[in-house]
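User: Show me a protein chain along with its predicted structure.
Assistant: Here is one chain, sequence first, then structure tokens.
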Amino acid sequence: MLNKKTYKNLRIRFAEEKDAEVLLDFIKKLAVYEKRLESVIATAEDIRKNIFEKKIAEALIAEQDGMPAGFAIFYYNFSTFIGKPGIYIEDLFVNEHLRGNGIGKAIFNFIAEIAIRKDCASIEWTVLKWNKPSIRFYEKLGAKKKDEWFIYRLDTNFLQNNSSSGLNAES
């Protein structure tokens, strides 16, 4: 159940270039929560360049009473079987002291409205196996775990060591 007082004073908006430091701060808070702070090498300049200049992803900021309360970074993917785009949420985080007040659900609803406007077929994301509070939250939203897929990743080392494969990747 939403805390109406908190939800009433909530504003969700698209982040702007001036918000790069705020986004980096949220990324670091998420990394602390996930016990992975040492993995954060992103800078505010990386965020400015890739989100706001190159437009590789989009970012949202939730504000409670005018103060940053949470964020989400997402981008579009494409389902060849369905023939429609989808949204992939890379990160979503709500400040710990504000959890349980409907902010996370409001961010998901905002992203769902974007998905509807863009005629997307789905919204997807990943969650760490140990993160039981988030898993309960997602399941309460109605999200379904996909057991039939494994996630694979080629990291920066692979990309750097295999970039001269003879293929010419035009941008």
